[in-house]
Amino acid sequence: MSLLEDKGVNTTPISKLGEFGLIDHLTKNIEIKNTSSVKGIGDDAAVIDMGERYQLVSTDLLVEGVHFDLSYMPLKHLGYKSVAVNVSDICAMNGAAKQITVGLAMSNRFTVEALDELYEGIKLACAHYGVDLVGGDTTSSTAGLMISVTVLGEVEKESIVYRSGAKVNDLVVCTGDLGAAYLGLQLLNREKEMFKENPTMQPDLTGNDYVLRRQLKPEAGVKYIDILKELEIVPTSMIDISDGLSSEVLHLAKSSNVGITIHEDKIPVDYTAMNLANEFNMNPIFCALSGGEDYELLFTVSQAHYDKLKKDADFTIVGYVTDASEGNNFIANDGSSHPLTAQGWDAMKK
Ligand code: ADP
Ligand code: MG
Q1: Which terminus of the chain has a lower count of CB atoms within 10 Å, N or C?
Q2: Which residues line ligand 1 (CB under 6 A)?
Q3: Model confidence band, residue 4 (pLDDT cutoffs 50, 70, 90)
Q4: Is residue 14 predicted with pLDDT exceeding 70?
């Protein structure tokens, strides 16, 4: 019997585990053999002891039809995004990205000119982030395009930040604003549907530059890492917000064995995103909690840094760390408290 077919006897559909459950399942008995492997699976990047510094390694795979739709994602933007999302994972360790390798699989539907465009975006991102493209692999696929980028980064040993260091009473801080990338995606989907019904119609995207940029050309939080360094702040824990605020809060809480409470009225949402959410009849806070792809950073810091953070508009204090026994909570604007659930965007359940 093929392992790939579900004949109903002792087989488990992947959807039963979900993306994170599947990773846990596949990796639960993996043992670290080399003392240089400081941190394996379970953070935004693996950590390798290189003597004077730590090296950071992370991989992200983008698949056509799952992570991007080429009917509205220009290939140049896709190339840029595939690098930016990897650099973001290095930022989440408080590190600096240095090299990438690029794995590419494409069907014969793609022309050389199309792949040139993809590489223009990749090269632009490499220039922007000061990263060298040092290798990769190229092969064909039976359907669609897949891009797998592996990033290598560096961090001083005393500056490394894991998901696991949050302490009770720490402040919970997020950078920039949230929900806009998801709203950008809703807008692009709406215009695509309208175009399918009436191909002569030109898409109306005016006034929505910000949300579109957030979806099509996200940036890694390098500037926030630089600001934290200037402010002499080393967060106690950190993660990048790729799957929505709630999912990332739960990751930090679980890894650090603490509880986290966040406040609805503190969650930063850009005003154009807010307006668009209203137009879509969506709750903008839902978009921030469960949308994803904002690639902001979520971190915890000692309260001693309150004054420094408060002065900087790049950072918003969205909550605080509690004992694990208090669980993870969302305090709504009316003061009511709700358990926070992982409705982070999960590619596999969709
Ligand atoms: P991120 O969203 O930060 O990219 P993921 O949620 O994709 O992180 O992955 C969580 C952890 O699981 C990471 O440490 C990652 O390296 C690891 N991981 C993901 N997929 C696999 C896999 N197929 N085999 C081994 N480790 C994996
Ligand atoms: Mg990450």
Answers
A1: C
A2: 23, 26-27, 41-44, 60, 89, 242
A3: low
A4: yes
In this structure, are 132 and 180 located in the same domain?
A: no
- Total domains in the fold of the chain: 2
Q: Best substitution site from 20, 23, 56 to test ligand 1's pocket, by max atoms within 8 Å of Cβ?
A: 23
Ligand closest to 348 (CA) is: 1
pLDDT tens, position by position, 217-230: 999 999 999 999 99
pLDDT above 90 (res 196): no
Is 99 among the domain residues?
yes
Alpha helices in 143-244 (DSSP H): 180-197, 209-216, 222-230
| Spatial CA neighbour of 239 closest among 165, 156, 159 | 165
Q: Domain of 271?
A: 171-339
Per the domain annotation, does 346 fall within a domain? no
How high does pLDDT run on average in the chain?
Answer: 93
Mean of the pLDDT values across residues 334-348? 72
- Whether 7 is in a domain gets the answer no
> Do strands 259-263 and 329-331 pair parallel, antiparallel, or not at all (unpaired)?
parallel
DSSP notation for 96-140: EEEEEEEEEEE-TT--HHHHHHHHHHHHHHHHHHT-EEEEEEEEE
Q: How far is CA 119 from the centre of its chain?
A: 22
* Same domain flag for 304 and 216: yes
- Alpha-carbon distance of 277 to 183, in angstroms, equals 7
